[in-house]
Every structure is written in structure tokens, then in C-alpha cells.
Amino acid sequence: MSKASAAWGDSENADPAASMQPLELTGRVRSAHAGDVHSTFSGRLRSRIVGLLPRARGLDVALDFDGTLVPIVPRPHLAVLGDRVREAILRLAALEEVRVAVMSGRRLDDLESRTALPGVHLVGLAGIESRDSDGARNVHGRRRISEGLIEELEAWCRSHHGSWVENKGLAVSVHHRAVPPARRAAFIHGLIRRLAPHRAALEITHGLMVHELRPAGSPTKGDALERWIGDSNDARVLIYLGDDANDRPALALVRRLGGVPVCVGPRHVPAPEHLAGPRAAMEFIEWLADAWQSREKAARGAITNGRATPSRDSSRDRESGRRTPGEARTAPTRRSDRSRSPAPRDR
């Protein structure tokens, strides 16, 4: 696939067939992954968010990269973030009381160079690396996968056309998207047999035509998301968009916190809301920026007209500690969730 065909966000480079599809988030559309999928009726997703916004004091939006913001491509280096998608993310991140993060299994350096999103929080290696909105970089784990295992996996891939090992330093991905279908089962069986003696030392995630390997105990995207949202007492709406197995811990955390978890593309991960693919995700980000901006204008208008005083019922609810209808998650919800078991990790 060419770079031009991968850059769905650029109108001049967009796939001609895709440009003929309706721009709303509904209907039967061509998935950016493969095949046709039905997207959830957009009215439900929009209504849910619209119901949360009026009482929200802020908005936190976390986005996966491959398969969510850009289509899945044959080789990772072919992925291109289109100008329209980038502009939509930057516009959303620039709004008052809005924070945006992009979380990927890619190396942080690779993600940074492909996104060019100043002021946006970035997470690499599915939680091991991060760059905050001020540009400060952090590594949350230093252990590495043994060189002996990497060499063994590289030898196995050399014997199977279409597979390769991507060594990311603190993590490793074994890709088999291009392995002929007739040989794929045998390749995966041999791969699992080679990984079995190392299971205690590895976090293994079986994604879309890839096995992602990270040192045991490495933080997940769920851990990275919890670090990012922090312990603010402000009621904020939390939204996460993801498409693959390494997004599961983050989607599970968002669901427990009362946020809005959204699956993008074919339903490979459990989430109550669904968008058809990267094109729909882009349009959703644009709509979300409009919705938040409208909410801000309405709030300023209410203050100007002297209607900012909360109702007697809502005041009583806050004093009693009850959550008012449509109110976003709060810090006490996060603290109580920490007493539960952590978000499940894919093995």
C-alpha cells in the first residue's frame, strides 16, 4: 500500500472509493482494516456524550494510533497520519479544559515523528514510554527481552516468507500479516512453541496478525491511561478509542470509571460503542470538538445571562455525595477502583 493510500485524512490523497461513502458515522461502510462492517447507530454514541457534557468540567480523550487514527498497512513504516486527522486532533487539544493523548505499541520516537502533535501526550510501547504535553520524556521499565530469544525468533521468521521481527528495544513484535494463509497456522504454532519456555519472563499479546512481546510486569495502556488522567477532583468526561488487543486494559479501565470506551473497526475488542474505522474516528473527533465548543459557548452565555447558579436539587446531590444525572466520573470513583483488581492484561 502506498503512503498516499494510507493517508485517509488527506482529501487530495484519500482513497477514491472511500470518498464516495457517506460522511456520517452510520450505515454500512468499508472498514479501514478489511471487509465491510456495520457501525453502531451514531445517535446512541452522540447522545451519550451530549448527555455527559453539560456538567463536565473537562474532557480527556485518548486515542490509539494504528487501526484507529490510520489504517492498518502491510508494513509499519507505510502508516501516514493525514493532515485532516492531525488538524482535528490539534483543534480538539487546543480547546479549553480538554486534554488529548495518543497511545501506541510503536516506539515513542517513531510515534512522535509520525504524529507531529505538539502539546499532545504520547505513549509508546503500549505503556512503557511516554512524552507529556510539555515534552518531558519518561521510561516506565528498563528490562529487555533476551537477545537469544530474539535471534531464535528471527531465524524462525526467515524460514517463513512474509513474517519478520520488529525489535523496538524494550519490546519486540513478530509480524505475520504477509504469511500465506495456508502457512499461517503452522507459523503461529511454531512461534508459540518457541515462546513457551519464556512465558514467565514475557507479556505476550496476540494482536491483529502480530504477536507483541514485552518484559513481564511492563505497564499496559491501562496503566498509562491511569497515570495520565491522575487524581484530579474535577468531574471530567473520559473517552478512549482503540481497535486491538493491547487496547483492552485501557478500554476496561474507561468502562469501570464510567467513561466512554469505543471500539474502532472490526469488533476485535469489547466495547459498548463502535466506529467503523479510522475515517469514522476522524469524523468523530471533529464532531467532538464542535460539541465541546458549543457546550463552552452555552456555558458562557448562561453566565452572561445570570443563569450559572446550580439548581437546588443538584446542590443537594453534591452535598450528599450522589452523582447527578449525566455527571462525568470523579476522583472518588478512581480511588475506589484502585482497590479492585487491576485491568486485565492480555497474555
TrEMBL record:
Task: Tell me one GO molecular function of this protein.
Answer: metal ion binding
Organism (species): Eiseniibacteriota bacterium
Known function: Removes the phosphate from trehalose 6-phosphate to produce free trehalose.
Q: Name its GO BP terms in alphabetical order.
A: trehalose biosynthetic process
Superkingdom to which the source organism belongs: Bacteria
The UniProt similarity line reads: Belongs to the trehalose phosphatase family.
Keyword annotations: Hydrolase, Magnesium, Metal-binding
| Enzyme Commission number(s) from the entry | 3.1.3.12
The keyword Hydrolase is annotated on this UniProt entry: yes
Q: Does the keyword Lipid metabolism apply?
A: no
| Annotated TM spans | none
Which cofactors must be present for this protein to function?
Mg(2+)
Biased amino acid composition, Basic and acidic residues: 313-326, 334-347
Q: What pathway is it annotated to?
A: Glycan biosynthesis; trehalose biosynthesis
Q: Annotated region Disordered: where? A: 298-347
Protein name, per record: Trehalose 6-phosphate phosphatase
Q: Which reaction does it catalyse?
A: alpha,alpha-trehalose 6-phosphate + H2O = alpha,alpha-trehalose + phosphate
